[in-house]
Request: fold
Amino acid sequence: MKKKVKRKIIKIDEDLCNGCGLCIPACPEMALQIVDTPKGPKARLVKELYCDGLGACLGNCPTGALTIEEREAEPYDDEATIERIKKVAPDMLEKHIQHMKEHQEQHLEHSHSEHQMNFVSGCPGSRIVSWGESKNEQKEEVEKESVSNIKSELRQWPIQLMLVNPQAPYFQNADLLIAADCVPFAFANFHSEFLKGKSLIIGCPKLDDAEFYKEKLTELFKNSKIKSITVVNMEVPCCFGLQHIVKEAIKNSKKKIPYCEVVVSIKGEILESEV
Reply:
């Protein structure tokens, strides 16, 4: 067994896991398996060294049982992972290779720099993508900005879920917007289309403590007369964890609160909206 290092790795909440198995094909490393337990079928990590900690499986869990934590674990071993894939699911090898290409820098850190394992990991949302615009489009945008005076619709502070006070008066009788913290950067009309008239909370379901989020939101929903909740998250799989967290918190609060969710693409377009 290799010396353990501090790095990011999958965490499975067995109380939330229903053994559906949707996470299995979503993991390019085939690092997960379903096992029979006294509580019924549950997802388990086969070996620590098979999990690269990039979280490709997160968005496929319907109950939010999968999160990423940072702890002491065996370093990721890609050679051993490939050998496992060849034995148990050879048809997944191409998917794994593509996953490796998309996350080459992160995987190199795993393999060659064990003392630098606390990098910010990503799932498909970490893939490097860029798109440009024509000079005419840039010019038109500059001209628009020069004659515009955009008003902020932010009505309170703080806004980060780790920092907000569930007892804060601005949550009473509020229409609440809960947004993944990348959304305002991707969606240009965030203030006018989403934030106007609402109290705001932002958070990252991948990089922060999901259980803490859930507990804090549950307390907020119990103690505040929230009129409605809108969840806005990015299209990348791990970001859908925010929907799971909010839904669980509503359920735990035993409140009936009108709920709406919106998904935004990395190019700033609304992909879907569901009430």
Q: What stands out?
A: The chain has two domains: 5-122, 153-274. Confidence is low (pLDDT under 50) at residues 110-123. The chain has nine helices and nine strands. Residues 153-274 form a domain with the Rossmann fold fold (CATH 3.40.50).
